[in-house]
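DM from R.C. (forwarded with permission)

"hey, sorry to bug you on a friday — could you get me a structure for this? deadline for the figure draft is monday and I only need the backbone to look sensible"
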Amino acid sequence: MDTFFHQSPCTADAPTLLVLLPGAYSEPDEFVREGYISTIEERRLAIDVLRVDAQLGYYTNGMAIVTRFGQDVIAPARRKGYTSIWVTGISIGGLGALAYAALNPGQLDGIVAIAPYLGERTTSLDIANAGGLMRWRAPTSTLPGDNAEQRMWAWLQRYGAQTGAPDMPQLYLGFGRDDRFAFSHELLAAVLPADHVFRTDGGHDWPEWRRLWQEILPVLPLPRCPSAQG
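My reply, with the result:
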């Protein structure tokens, strides 16, 4: 995967890396054009940022995104010495972040899923008909490797448990109330803390994603530059 690096404005040795995964038909340059990078810079965060060119083919080819993301992004980041890795994924980029975290426990410290694609609506309907995510049980009749989407939802159930697991990344969710995937988003929102869920008017496009980023970024527990403290 091609990547594009932005160094922290206040340190050459930032301990935290924020990775940006675009949507299905988006280019990594859109994070610049749509103000994601400038919003980060305005916050004076002591983090490095990496935009990733994760094209749609990585998701349609047997979810190769999970393997390639680990090999091309996470492993090099660990070798560089980052002790904390966060991922912001938009639409199918959110799916990539969640699927990777589900199969690689303890590798991510935080995920911001903005209008994430969470799989086929049939699975969401099954979850809703079961009475919500905590009442749903993933089918066990399919072969391993054939139910990655259901495994991801089963992993997401752990956010609704009374006691959190140390290998679960902090998860923030944002979406438009009229987003075409909002039905699935609400199923996930129901198991997350209320202050980790952000809603805005509108659907599934950049105006909504910009507003959500401007709301979510200030509350993320990311380190700030010393001059920006207080």
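R.C.: lifesaver. Residues 85 and 172 are 14 Å apart (CA to CA).
me: no worries. The chain is about 35% helix and 15% strand.
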